Amino acid sequence: MTTLSPSDRSQTLIEVNGRSYAMPQRPVVVICLDGFDPDYLERGIADGVLPTIAAFKSGGYIGTALATVPTTTNTNNTSIVTGVSPAVHGINGNYYLDADTGEEIMVTDARRLRCGTILGAMSKAGVKTAVVTAKDKLLKVLAFEMDGIAFSSEHPNSADLTALGFKSGEDMVGRAKPDQYSADLSLFALDAGIKLMETARPQLIYLSTSDYVQHKYKPGDAESNAFHAAVDSRMARLIELGATVALTADHGMADKTDADGRPNVVYLEDALNDKFGAGTARVICPIADPFVRHHGALGGFVRVHLLKPCDIKAMMTYARSLPGVELVLDRATVCERYQLPPDREGDFAVFSDRGTVVGARREDHDLSALGSHSLRSHGGLGEQRVPFVVSRPLTRDYRERAAAGVLRNYDIFDFALNGVE
């Protein structure tokens, strides 16, 4: 790999999916803090939990942006690292139905990715690049065609780190890999990023966390405060090491329970088949992933695939009448409005309101693992607003752009690489 000097990099723009990115002149670390709803940001700053981020008010940038729809992990991490919408990159959820084969597919690799990534292009141009993600399911997409260091907290020993003097990822971070369902799964990824900065000095790092904490704890809870304070302190260390740090989220998070703490659930497939006949429709929940204990595969957005001819308008009207349903859109409309790939959408899409989740059949969703915790989830429009923060001041052009328009979370690499003073 050829490593360019800062002066050479400053003259070079890398084209990725129709957008241009300056090669980093100093280390740049982009963090996707999974499930980081703006309520955590606002409460954390107000309560003194996030002093590093709070300092960005005067020494950097703090704002919000829109995540892509559905507001799921795979969709948005892919948008962030490609800089484009799902209509271009093709990953429209964690889970989808292949209309041609009838196969239901869990997205755990890059076979369905339809474009390259910023990370891959930068690494090919000679930028030392690294990716560490909490969830292994993301790694093959995030590190697609990337030359550099890439591993997950779930499988930290998959990367060869001997050139850095470490036998494994666990050896580098200094502790054993965390449990899949733990706050430390995320902190391990951030600590790995710090260790890489201290040793390998990558010029571009992407760190993606898990939303374990946000699914279980509300803003202001002791557990969420402790976790977000730990994230904030690690951001401080990355800045101390000379990095520009930019942070956004893949989606927000909201409570989905009634006044008595019971989950607000619309079992849409049951309702449609009861109304229009057994076997009429299949409902696909794109939030479904290997971390199903978090949410029971229940979220704020589902796709409806018709299995036999029926009156689709009548079905959509009925779906819209169900309590907790906020919006119902046909395939063409949902693709146009939210920039989704038509060949991977259902016949129509159903969105629940911020306080409700929508699922398929009651038997498909196991909420027993929630225990004493209330159901908190994402996927819909209520979780589309996310934080968008940068550790250094923006240039005048980028300040004006942020003030005048709607930012997207997938603008974060543009701002971090092109938009800071």
UniProtKB/TrEMBL annotation:
GO terms for molecular function: phosphonoacetate hydrolase activity. Keywords: Hydrolase. Transmembrane segments: none annotated. Gene3D superfamilies: Alkaline Phosphatase, subunit A (3.40.720.10), Domain 2, Phosphonoacetate Hydrolase (3.30.1360.110). InterPro entries: Alkaline_phosphatase_core_sf, Phosphodiest/P_Trfase, Phosphonoacetate_hydro, Phosphonoacetate_hydro_insert. Pfam families: Phosphodiest. This is Phosphonoacetate hydrolase.
